Amino acid sequence: SKPAYKWRRVLLKVSGEALAGDNVQNIDPKVTTAIAREVASVTRLGIEVAIVVGGGNIFRGSSWAGSSGLDRSSADYIGMLATVMNAIFLQATMESVGIPTRVQTAFRMSEVAEPYIRRRAVRHLEKGRVVIFAAGTGNPFFTTDTAAALRCAETSFGSFLFAKIYLWLVFLFLWLKANHNPYPDSDLGTVGYLMEGEADSVLQFNAEVVLKATNVDGVYDDDPRQNPNARLLDTLSYQDVISKELSVMDLTAITLCQENNIPVVVFNLNQEGNISRAIKGERVGTIIGG
Ligand code: UDP
């Protein structure tokens, strides 16, 4: 049967700027609560949600590097630590609305969070837990957008080719199994033998998308703050983003998405219901792909 929603597993990227809302104190609890509620509503539908949090609301390495003798690597490590603060805040909020949530960090901080272990992350997702990936990629000179693309590709959200081959092999196997009825006298016959649970475990490789929650409605053909006639684009190719130098994501992140055929949806998280709409695969913001 066709899954009810477009995605079965998504990677939601929440930037630090989006978490800040209108609060001067770096994090706006109204925003984190809204995120938690909307994510809760979709996890109840069975959609698996992983989150990558940014840290720009607290510290952005690139804007500090150079000042007061701070080298880029040190500045970036501070930036990565900032993402851990956001992650723990978001985790606590998620759990207060009843969603079991795990934080995994790209470098070890085992007293506060689990270290990133790919298979473990997938297992949490399969059990219906939300996983928040913190500390970006764990490397200076990268961004949390790249971390989002990387974790998405890595946790088999993104490998279309693999997923397709895998799906075909499993369907072939199930078809052969269904046609070979080991219980010829049973009333259930072949239909009963192809159990619901088996079909479900096949489908869980279906979903792969990065949903980038921002403070803007999507991608415009020009800067809307400077050009009042700038148009909001529905769809866009990776190549457009790269050649027109649209500041959707940094080049490393967008290239990683392109190479792994991961669609990216850019949408506004301040509009109520948008997060759950995006996760359910409904039309919202701008979709980049192709
Ligand atoms: N950062 C890093 N490596 C990573 C991810 C993040 O060094 O893989 C640092 C970098 O200094 C960055 C900061 O963490 O400025 C916060 O992340 P980012 O700017 O991506 O957050 P966002 O813009 O999403 O709030």
From TrEMBL:
<protein>
    <recommendedName>
        <fullName>UMP kinase</fullName>
        <ecNumber>2.7.4.22</ecNumber>
    </recommendedName>
</protein>
<keyword id="KW-0418">Kinase</keyword>
<feature type="domain" description="Aspartate/glutamate/uridylate kinase">
    <location>
        <begin position="205"/>
        <end position="268"/>
    </location>
</feature>
<dbReference type="GO" id="GO:0005524">
    <property type="term" value="F:ATP binding"/>
</dbReference>
<keyword id="KW-0547">Nucleotide-binding</keyword>
<comment type="pathway">
    <text>Pyrimidine metabolism; CTP biosynthesis via de novo pathway; UDP from UMP (UMPK route): step 1/1.</text>
</comment>
<dbReference type="GO" id="GO:0006225">
    <property type="term" value="P:UDP biosynthetic process"/>
</dbReference>
<keyword id="KW-0665">Pyrimidine biosynthesis</keyword>
<comment type="similarity">
    <text>Belongs to the UMP kinase family.</text>
</comment>
<dbReference type="GO" id="GO:0005737">
    <property type="term" value="C:cytoplasm"/>
</dbReference>
<dbReference type="GO" id="GO:0033862">
    <property type="term" value="F:UMP kinase activity"/>
</dbReference>
<feature type="domain" description="Aspartate/glutamate/uridylate kinase">
    <location>
        <begin position="9"/>
        <end position="155"/>
    </location>
</feature>
<keyword id="KW-0808">Transferase</keyword>
<keyword id="KW-0067">ATP-binding</keyword>
